[in-house]
Amino acid sequence: MKQNVVSREYKVMLQQERFIGSQDDLLQKAGEFWNDFKGLIQDIVIDTDGSLNEVKKERQIRFYDTADRRIRKSNYVFRERVDINTGKREVTLKYRHPDRYISQDRDMTAANVKDGKTKFEEDIKLPFFKLYSFSTKQPISNNKNLNKLNDPGKLYPDFKKRLKSYQKNEPIEVVGDFTAREIVIAGADFQIRNTPKVEADCALIAWYDLRGEKDNPVVVEFSFKYENKKEEYDGEASQKVYDVFSRLKENLAAWVDSDGLTKTAYVYSRGS
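Structure (tokenized):
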């Protein structure tokens, strides 16, 4: 079944050493980056609004896989998020592939349909590499164990049909024994069309190793995305976003880490 691309998200890794310091320092640096970024794109976009000055989310992030990383090798990612302030847990199963039709050719429905939130997105990374991401997130209880393939298998029934050599009692583990403390900073956007009005929401995401130095981020990412549930993306808006992305990678070398690992790749590089 054809899936509508409900959002297009552009992601750029930043030089993490520029963001070392306390949370106040992180917010200050995020604001400095935003000022440089918005100044760079003024002649492309219609308007910019706000700043990257709001801590929107604070979470712990873990990825789970088999010892031979078979989930990842099958283009799936199984991730847990825990809200640091409320303790609420959620898991996400995501399938990512550069071919849209391969990515959408599966059933990502959660076992408890009413709890699952499914979306099909387009992710764009440097230099202009696209992945189609089909994912469903759902809440889990505080006492739910995540230690066997049967855990994601029961939460996502189609997954156990798709994964090669699926054995429900095979152990899964936290990849690289790594837990990230994630801080998501938001509050800024830029407008790329008037009628209808189209805006791209911006965010800066910093990851810290929970067992490492609390003021030293291991990964920092900047992203912006715009959405349309009916997948009605016109050429005018798309051209502006493409131009913003090009300007960012070509003219903000002082901030951009063009060789930096994505967040997921960083986690798996630790477990290799």
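Residues 11 and 223 are 4 Å apart (CA to CA). Residues 23-41 form the longest helix (19 residues).
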